Amino acid sequence: MVFRKIGPQVLINLLFILFSLACLFPLVAVLSVSLSNETDILKNGYRLFPKMFDMSAYAYILYKPLQILNAFKVSLFVSFFGTFVSLLVIAGIAYPLSREDFKLKNKLSFYVFFTMLFNGGLVPTYMLISNYLHLKNTIWVLILPYLAVPWFILLLRSFMQKIPHSIIESCMMDGASEFRIFFQMILPLAKPGLATVALFTLLQYWNDWWLSLLYIEKESLVPLQFMLYRMMNNIAFLTNSSNMMPPAMKNVILPSESARMAMAILAAGPMLLVFPFFQKHFVRGLTVGAVKG
C-alpha cells in the first residue's frame, strides 16, 4: 500500500530529474568544448569533459579586453534600457486595445496586425533611418526599431483583457484619472504578462546583431553580438585562406570550434543569470488565454 502511494510520485520525480539533467547536458558540452584544445576537437570530436584543458579560445576572444568590455556595456545598456522603454510603449498601446469602450479599438488593432504581415522593405527602411531620421552611428538606432513589436502588443493586450472591467469602473467612480488607473492598477495586475513580454524583448535586444551590421560603424557603439560575429567571420576567413598565409603561419591551428563555443558562453551567460528572476511570472504569462475549468 505504501509503495502504491509513494511509487508513482518517486517515478515522476525521477523522470523530471532525468529531464533536467538532459537539459543541462548541452550547456556542459558547450562549456567543455570551449575549454578543449582545437587539435583534440578536430581529431576526436566533441567530448563531455575536455581531454586536454586549453584556454586558447578565451585568450583569442579576450585579446583586447577593453574592447570586449565596451561591447558588453553597449549591449547591457541597449538591452535593459530598451526593454524598459519598450515595455512602457507596448503597455501604452496594449491597454487601450484591451478596453471595450475604446472607439478606435478595431482600427488600431487592424493597424498593429497589418504591420506583422507587411513592412517597408530593407532599402526604404535604411534610407529612412540613415538619411531622414539621421540615426546612423547612434545608440538609438539599436533601440528604436524594437520599441513596439506588434506580436508583443497583441500578447499583452490578450492578458490585459483578462483584467475585470469592473475594477476600472470602480476606479473611475472614485475619481481616478486614466493615467492613475494605468500606472497604479493595470500595470501591477498585468505583472505576469509584462514579465513575459520583458523577457522576450530583452532576449531580442541582447541577441540582435543585424541592426549594428547595417547602421553602426563606430567601434565605441559596437554591441557584443556583432563583435563576436565579426570575430567568427575573421576566424573562418583565416582558416579558409591558409594557402595565402606566410609559411610560418601555415601550421598554426586557429581555435575555430572552441572559439565558437566560447562565444556562446560569453553571449548566453548573462541571460542565463537573468532568466530565474523572470521565471515565476514568465510561466504565469504563458498561460494567457488558457481555458479555466
TrEMBL record:
UniProt keywords, alphabetically: Cell membrane, Membrane, Transmembrane, Transmembrane helix, Transport
Entry annotated with the keyword GTP-binding: no
A Pfam match: BPD_transp_1
Subcellular location(s) per record: Cell membrane
Membrane-related topology note: Multi-pass membrane protein
Keyword Transmembrane listed: yes
Transmembrane annotation, as ranges: 12-35, 74-98, 110-133, 139-160, 181-202, 261-278
InterPro entries associated with the record: MetI-like (IPR000515), MetI-like_sf (IPR035906)
CDD domains named among the record's database cross-references: TM_PBP2
Domain ABC transmembrane type-1, residue spans: 72-278
Family: Belongs to the binding-protein-dependent transport system permease family.
Protein name: Aldouronate transport system permease protein
Annotated source species: Paenibacillus eucommiae
Organism classification: Bacteria, Bacillati, Bacillota, Bacilli, Bacillales
